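Your task:
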Amino acid sequence: DLAFDDFVQAFNWPSFTYQESLSNAVRHNRTERVFTANEAPPSVSIFLHHEMAQTPIYPSKLFFYCEQAAEQGGATPICRSDVLIQRLIDEVPEFVRACEQKGIRYAQTMPAENDLASGQGRSWTSTLSADNRQQAEDKLHRLGYEWQWQEDDSLSVITPVLPAVKQLDDGRKVFFNQLIAAFRGWQDARNSAEKSICYGDNSTIDNEHMAVVIRLADELTFDIPWQTGDVALVDNLVAMHGRRPFEGSRRVLASLVA
């Protein structure tokens, strides 16, 4: 991990630390800029997403380092969202128009303590860098979130309206969001996947449209089949990524670029 830290620093890009992020995944820091990719159980699929696109603050690039390859499985699927959106425009143009015009809101409940059984198990104290409810509410207010405290001290939040489609500096459009991950995978003791996303005007996203998104994304996806010692650099503004289930010990570290 120290060698990986040195490698990342050599690029001289600004760091985007886990502590300052609003990531809902449980991770453990190895150094200030290097941390574990996700502590979700090996059997859990982490579906395609742009890193932290479900928050107002997200990194531009992602470094991954395979410290220990899994005995079986554990690949990182990659899907180019600039290609995906062109396929979506061809098949479901009305859905793309709705995404562009309305944006997306995400709903999530954060536990009081880290839940290692969930891919979305990061506690609200860690996510919001808050020691108490007042600090958490202050940060949510600044970021434009709605929130509600639950009886078990968990915290339910709804994001402000966030983009579902972005236009890059070179003019390309990208399907920049966490719709697939939320729709397919935000399911745990506190969260229900079908209630996790809606359009920015609070209207419902059609399940049939999401089925098209998932089918086309799966068709375009390729895997990074990790070997111990491999490093990958992913442009977070162009490509979605995820994690396949695995067997054995798998340790992939990450470092994010602001």
